[in-house]
Amino acid sequence: MWRLAGRRRRPGLGVGFRAASTAAMTCRAVVLSRFGGPEVLEVRPSVEIPNLKPKEVLVRARAVSINPLDLRMRSGYGRSIFEPLLPLILGRDISGEVAAFGSSVSSLTVGQEVFGALHPTAVRGTYADYAILSEDELTLKPPSVTHVEASAIPFAALTAWRALKSTARISEGQRLLVLGGGGAVGLAAIQLSVAAGCSVSTTCGSKSIDRVLEAGAEQAVDYTAEDTELAIKGQFDAVLDTIGVPETERIGINFLKKGGHYMTLQGEAGSLADRYGLAIGLPTATAILLKKQIQYRYSHGIEYWWTYMRADAEGLDEIRRLSEAGMLKIPVEKTFPIIQVREAHEVKDRKLVPGKVVLEFD
């Protein structure tokens, strides 16, 4: 959905832009102009598409998935960073086709089907007919995977990849415990670890037991019906805590071997920055993290980390390879057309659909 909005020259666009490179272009997008509930999301028919930088790629969206971060940002999480930048476009995951590319892009060409994810602090997200990502945030979509399926994978899988591969550096024969394995990041962590030759135990709700076992977990403990500390046996080389409350932190750390890695998705940097402002909040968060790292290194002999998603070309290539082989899947529970984005956020807010929800583009 391109629309001409003038006749000025647009520098910085590669040959992939072709005839459209001489005009300012707009597209339909979901815009967040203020924080709040699903009602603040506005589908606008004409939002300007910025000039492409040399290493950027313009992707025609076919499907984008809704991540917990989208709901939190819409409600005001990260306000200290994002409020001065309103209006925003939400969305991190995308699957679609290359529509244009910057002058330094070398690995992609127009028409190729790709999928990938933006970093957590991106201001112009993927809830748009056309999204802009850097070349290293994209990889080719396997033909055997649909756009809907592909859009559910990258952000969650890259979050798990960073924790397991970049931080814990898991290797064949090690044991991993995933606290909260039923969500997208937990499922990705299980599958990535199994592919690396690790054995995995996990906790989850009763409805997710079959799903995590199918993903490759050797043991699945229903934390609503069993005592996790009694049900799980042995010690682990790494613990990924997707829940991140004090109780799961205590349990996870006590299950670690000496020299093991505890990683939580619920770091305090964003919430402290929102509460106290960037100037005070970020240094406070750094001090809290450092204190915990020293404390646990001294008391338990383990490494403690807050972990976040970051773009990783090597990780994304491995995610593509595993997805193509059928070894990495994030089940999609429900889809909505992009024009029903408010309804989609509503069902996620009210926890009516526990699994992945994907927005489709006509």
From TrEMBL:
What InterPro entries is this protein classified in? ADH-like_N, ER, GroES-like_sf, Lipid_raft_assoc_Zn_ADH, NAD(P)-bd_dom_sf
One Pfam family linked to the record: ADH_zinc_N_2
Domain named Enoyl reductase (ER) is located at 36-359
GO function term, MF aspect, one: oxidoreductase activity
Q: Where are the transmembrane segments?
A: none
Q: Which domain of life is it from?
A: Eukaryota
**Gene3D superfamilies per record:** Medium-chain alcohol dehydrogenases, catalytic domain, NAD(P)-binding Rossmann-like Domain
Q: Protein name, please?
A: Reticulon-4-interacting protein 1, mitochondrial
